[in-house]
Amino acid sequence: MKYLITGGFGRLGTYLSKKIYCLSPSKAELDVLNIEQVEHFVSSNEIDSVLHLAAICDIPATEKDKRLTYLVNVVGTRNIAQAAKKFNKKVVYISTDYVFPCTEGGYKETDQPNPFNWYGFTKYAGELEIQNYTDNYLIIRTSFRPIVWLFSTAYDNVFTSGDYVDVIADEIGLCLNKAEDLTGIIHIGTQVKTLYELAKIRNPQVLPEKFTGSHKGRDMSLEKWDNIKNSLNK
């Protein structure tokens, strides 16, 4: 299967585009807010599915410019979904653990989203756009960090099933290459650990720190991927 990747030159797309058979136009070539560009690429006989990564993901940036974030993350996703429906292409949409309040952890695909920040809200709204405009989709909720831990400290009381971007790209690549017919919503991550445990993997000198803010964001771990992954490897 050949994918059209939106946002293929972003943090995740850079690694993921090496794992799958894909066409990866630049942002100048494919602006998700430009319907003519979207339809041009989605309608191509060269591609079978659309892997939609393009989004504003930086949390401070999403809060600073909520209008632009809404346009890119929601309206842009709507444009992709409508074009995919029109030209009979599957959509794989990369979403986030931030669609949940991130207080309890162990979130399942069937749990009701309840975002606690603007980024999470726009990504959940993007999920709804995908579900409203096309029946042939796979929504992947996941979480990833830069390839190295750049900070001197990390929280030892915040939990995640996210991982480094190259690790998550491997997991998503496995899913896309071995489960082309998978549809619906799935969660992809690695084992649950604290951010401190994650940081120490690639920065042994990192020091532990306590998160003392809101209870929201304390546990963003997701469930289920191991069950699907094990079935793919049989």
Helix and strand content put the structural class at: alpha/beta
What is the arithmetic mean of pLDDT?
Answer: 93
Described by the principal axes of the CA atoms, the overall outline is globular
The proportion of residues in beta strands is 15-25%
Number of strands: 12
The CATH superfamily label reads NAD(P)-binding Rossmann-like Domain
Distance between the termini: 21 Å
How many helices in DSSP terms? Answer: 8
Can you tell me the CATH topology? Rossmann fold
Name of the CATH class:
Alpha Beta
List the helices and strands and how they pair.
Layout: E1 3-6, H1 11-16, E2 22-23, H2 35-42, E3 49-52, H3 59-64, H4 66-86, E4 90-96, H5 118-133, E5 137-142, E6 144-145, E7 153-155, E8 159-160, E9 163-164, H6 165-178, E10 184-187, E11 193-194, H7 195-202, E12 207-209, H8 225-232
Parallel strand pairs: 1-2, 1-3, 3-4, 4-5, 5-10, 6-9, 7-12
Antiparallel strand pairs: 8-11
Helix pairs in contact: 2-4, 4-5
